[in-house]
UniProtKB/TrEMBL annotation:
This is Variant surface glycoprotein 1125.2939. InterPro entries: Trypano_VSG_B_N_dom. Pfam families: VSG_B. It comes from Trypanosoma brucei. It is a lipid-anchor; GPI-anchor. It is found in: Cell membrane.
Length: 279
């Protein structure tokens, strides 16, 4: 019954493969890439050279700098990563702490923390100083490490969490104040406060989906190997009967690859195996 067993194995493999192939793996570049760009840059923006302050901040930055440097989607808040970098790097117009990131990204025009005046070129310059990850392998572990590193940069002062340098009286970037991003209600729910940064949940979701895709690909590789093995065994069985590499044909005489000399379909062989197992 060797051929029947081979046929049954092939059938099982194909059934499992079909289920896995049709399973939702949640990894699609057409959805993942826009989500990342929206969190890091701005929705619809393909690269940093096209960033505008009015879209990096929700409805544009303005008013008091601490309010703008509170991440979120409300009016004038830092809703994207580039806006948050601007909060950490852009020099203020009053008693400014300079060269917090680098001298170059202090901005050609200082950020007036009362009016929120920022030039598009300044925010682009800040974004362009970030090292490129092009060509680097992004693994689930790498993505989760990035999220954890950001989490470790947050320190708590009272009920509020701050990323950056906080001394007192907000994140105005003035001397004696702070060059920072403010995370309100951090003491009540740290994960929810961190998620307002925008990138964290997107990166964690991407890491989870990459795990699913890796597992999916591994299973498909193993199934293909099993199917190839079944094929090779069938060919070997046929060659022992004096055939070639084609499918076995009925023939007289004893056949070690068949239960008897008459040809039986894989389905009939499968039924016989099932009935034998039940006895």
């Amino acid at each position: 019954m060797k051929l029947a067993k081979i046929a049954l194995e092939a059938k099982k493999v194909k059934t499992i493969a079909a289920k896995i192939e049709n399973a939702e793996t949640n990894f699609d570049k057409t959805t993942q890439e826009p989500a990342l760009k929206t969190a890091i840059l701005v929705a619809g923006i393909q690269d940093v050279s096209n960033i505008k302050v009015s879209s990096a901040f929700a409805e544009g930055s303005g008013g008091e700098r601490t309010a703008s440097c509170t991440p979120g989607s409300c009016t004038k808040q830092a809703k994207t990563l580039v806006a948050q970098l601007d909060c950490l790097c852009h020099a203020d117009s009053s008693k400014a702490v300079t060269a917090v990131c680098t001298k170059k990204v202090d901005g050609s025009t200082a950020w007036n923390h009362n009016s929120g005046t920022i030039g598009d070129e300044d925010i682009r310059t800040i974004a362009q100083t970030c090292p490129s990850g092009k060509g680097k392998m992004m693994t689930p572990t790498h993505l989760r490490t990035l999220v954890e590193n950001v989490r470790n940069l947050v320190h708590q002062d009272g009920a509020v969490g701050y990323s950056g340098d906080y001394e007192a009286t907000g994140c105005t970037s003035s001397s004696g104040s702070g060059v920072c991003i403010k995370l309100g209600n951090y003491n009540e729910d740290p994960p929810a406060a961190l998620n307002k940064l925008g990138c964290q949940p997107v990166l964690e979701h991407l890491a989870d989906n990459l795990d699913k895709r890796i597992s999916h690909n591994k299973q498909m590789t193993e199934l293909k190997s099993r199917l190839q093995k079944a094929k090779e065994e069938a060919i070997s069985c046929n060659q022992k009967r004096g055939g070639g590499t084609e499918a076995p044909a009925p023939g007289p005489g004893p056949d070690p690859c068949r239960p008897n000399s008459s040809f039986q379909s894989a389905r009939e062989q499968e039924k016989r195996m099932y009935n034998t197992q039940r006895q």
